């Protein structure tokens, strides 16, 4: 009788930033299909998702990935449900209205490799500072790039798991890196980002390091960490007119507070108007403008106004489910105006 390890992964109820939890279920004769992953439960009173006198929460499997770092293992992304089967209030995935997968998302996930023993990024000298920003972005060499072995191992694990990582690079600050994930379907994009985050946390754990997802862990003249959201739907992919893009971009303007509310905690420390950001209380858009709230890629313009947009405001610690849900809601309504 073959035994398989199913690692159920979910998001807890911590506020303002949820964190990853997981536990292993051993099953027999598993056929490798999502539909064969049983519903499971956990103690919600230990994750701020239930009271102790009624603590059961349900784990509904929503995506399945082979676990490349474990024998006979799979990673099961789940969403949290109440005992009656309704979505738990912490369940951001349930907010997404994209049943036909018309929305495509590409998330650019920035993060810091962090040394818990010094409480500093990898590459920071104890009791001092490295050289200023400049030599680290897309760098090579031991004086510039820190933790490449972890980043490369994580990339291989993601690809072996079937996650659609489209690239990685060293970022602007010391010890800062980025990976990019693309998926057709808002839910699928969120699933893949969360499993990629889980694999990164687990890989860094082996090296005695942690991952710092905070949008501005270093004060001063250092870039913060974002999770730029590139997105399109059939309207944007087929518009063929600048006016259509203007209409959709302008729809974001009156909804700054609604978007910022789900774009990640402490994002005000990052969105200051400096370091390639727009101020958190302002809204702007423009072609190739990395200081705007929303950037219109030059490739979209050169393709005859058929392509995608990039919302540069989401923070590195944001929930891709909630970010995608809010973008889908805004763009859907604006698309109705474009196609009317």
Automatic annotation (TrEMBL):
Pfam families: Gln-synt_C, Gln-synt_N. Its main location: cytoplasm. Residues 87-340 form the GS catalytic domain. Its EC number is 6.3.1.2. It catalyses: L-glutamate + NH4(+) + ATP = L-glutamine + ADP + phosphate + H(+). It comes from the Bacteria. GO terms for molecular function: ATP binding; glutamine synthetase activity. Residues 4-85 form the GS beta-grasp domain. Keywords: ATP-binding, Cytoplasm, Ligase, Nucleotide-binding. PANTHER family: GLUTAMINE SYNTHETASE (PTHR20852), GLUTAMINE SYNTHETASE 2 CYTOPLASMIC (PTHR20852:SF57). Catalyzes the ATP-dependent biosynthesis of glutamine from glutamate and ammonia. Belongs to the glutamine synthetase family. This is Glutamine synthetase. It comes from Fulvivirga sediminis.
